[in-house]
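Q: What does the assembly look like in three dimensions?
Context provided by user:
Components: two
Sequences:
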Amino acid sequence: MAEPTILTPERILEAAEDVLRRFGPAKATVVDVARALGVSHGSVYRHFPSKAALREAVLERWLDRVSSPLAVIANGDGPAPDRLRRWFDTLIAAKRVKVLDDPEMFATYSTLAADSREVVGKHVATLAAHLARIVADGVAQGVFAAENPEASGRALLDATARFHHPAHAAEWSDPTIATAFDGVWELVMRGLESGRA
Amino acid sequence: MAEPTILTPERILEAAEDVLRRFGPAKATVVDVARALGVSHGSVYRHFPSKAALREAVLERWLDRVSSPLAVIANGDGPAPDRLRRWFDTLIAAKRVKVLDDPEMFATYSTLAADSREVVGKHVATLAAHLARIVADGVAQGVFAAENPEASGRALLDATARFHHPAHAAEWSDPTIATAFDGVWELVMRGLESGRA
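A: Here is the predicted structure of the complete assembly.
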């Protein structure tokens, strides 16, 4: 028998992710998670008051794994246009790896996301704030002319939805997708660089 | 009894759309369409060689109803920025009306579209060509600085996917969607107006 270990939120979330992977979002229950950990479901509920709360926490953890490397780029140094491109390349590559390597888990998280608009909204706000930060740096560096970096950050995220929003995942294997991104990139970079007449 | 009328492709397509509406895309058959018209299924097959061909023609007709009013704007006269905005407002309003007024039929057409990438590809190319035409006019009018109107047309369509691509239909009732579109519009308009340094 395994040594008894302390039941941390992190251990519960790991087990919950594993249970979602095995049973799928329609069937996975808190009892399954408790069983996988060898504890009572009451012990799980002491950390997460409901199945919905547990699922939201699993989703949040997954989304944090997407945004953490992006935060490093957003909060880093260097020319803003390079960081902006690196930020998008990193986001797009991460999404693509997730959908190609583990399409079932990608679908599971898309289901969780559809049920947790608030968690997704927070994630989107985090990403938009990263972009606003880079745009503001670009303005300070004299390479971008945006008057409202926050609005520009949100606009950049919206204008590139086709390349990172899960609803478009089926299009990412299209051989023209990289050229399409370059076209949008060119257009929005010109927009950022230009003070409007 | 109704007077016998000539069986035209147009009559078959109308009946097919009606049958899809009543039975849904999973159940509707060519036999249902023939029955609705009071003809043999052989008569239908003389115009459309397969169920897939009939469905593609129904989809094409539906997409043509979306693109026809847009073609009028694209091929019209007047300042390019105004026409560009009118083109997008018209597209976005048409999609929104379709999804709000008849969500089941919208879902049916989304299913047909997923099965007919070629028809959808042709439609997207038509829309991109409209945009290229308006951008080229804007360059001739001295208001846009785009070097490659065709690439800009495609980029404009991609950059606005969130506001007209059916995969985002659930987001169109979000109260912030109009502001979000304005943000992307501002950014891409600056991009079109600016010759890159």
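Follow-up: Chain A has a mean pLDDT of 94.
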